[in-house]
Amino acid sequence: xxxxxxxxxxxxxxxxxxxxxxxxxxxxxxxxxxxxxxxxxxxxxxxxxxxxxxxxxxxxxxxxxxxxxxxxxxxxxxxxxxxxxxxxxxxxxxxxxxxxxxxxxxxxxxxxxxxxxxxxxxxxxxxxxxxxxxxxxxxxxxxxxxxxxxxxxxxxxxxxxxxxxxxxxxxxxxxxxxxxxxxxxxxxxxxxxxxxxxxxxxxxxxxxxxxxxxxxxxxxxxxxxxxxxxxxxxxxxxxxxxxxxxxxxxxxxxxxxxxxxxxxxxxxxxxxxxxxxxxxxxxxxxxxxxxxxxxxxxxxxxxxx
Length: 305
Description:
The chain has helices at 39-42, 52-63, 106-134, 170-180, 202-208, 227-242, 246-256, 269-278, 281-286, 294-302; strands at 6-9, 17-21, 66-70, 92-93, 96-97, 141-148, 151-152, 155-156, 161-164, 187-189, 214-220. It has two domains: 6-249, Zn-dependent exopeptidases (Aminopeptidase), CATH 3.40.630; 259-302, no CATH class. It has ten helices and eleven strands. Strands 1-3-2-6-11-9-10 form a seven-stranded mixed sheet, sandwiched between helices. Helix 2 (52-63) crosses helix 6 and helix 8 packs across helix 10 (294-302). The longest helix is centred in the middle third of the chain and has 29 residues, at 106-134. By secondary structure, the chain is an alpha/beta fold. Helices cover 38% and strands 14% of the residues.
């Protein structure tokens, strides 16, 4: 029997936060064999984010949050890449050719998407949807955990930890500033990667499109060499998050949203956006104006990914 494509811990966790780990596993489904790679490559950083699952699991434990983690290696398909991009199923990664990924046709790529990528992201969507419903449309905080090598292709990476973001830096910058108060840490800002629609999936789709407060953590792998050290990083991230006023960050978004229809005041930003659309001239011309239900509109926006 092939390995499951995702795992969930603490399915009934608190509704305020969801933790995800896109590159949690080095497992390759039985039907794909070893993809033509030696065991050393299949257990290396090109296959998964070493230590990331331990950090994510500990962070979720401290938060009493649901964790959703991928169950298959990113050599099979990268769960943090849009499936349509070539690097989603890499033929070469980290300077290593992956023979089992060379020359795949569209049907083979689609099969991997269906078996590995889509079940994982369906589980993420389900966790987020359930918490949007439980909180009457006000979505949870989304936290994504990754790790990176101390050096890549001869280039040293000095950051112990970094915060990644795309269009919305609120939570990333708040956590960054808390961590930078520790003089022993070198804390990166969108390093050694940055989030884009072309190179990333989880933050743009599950975070930005839903309007959720979110960030991605990147941790250097030499700081995660043991289970104990990885769990210590989970504790450290928990303490950083605990020091942040999340409600104040949500209000920052509200202020940036600008003027809103009078009936939308006091609602969350996603709901206001939905109300603004329903109040536009085109919709009014077709039907009488109707009152915007805060919980219904927020839930629709939160579940939109």
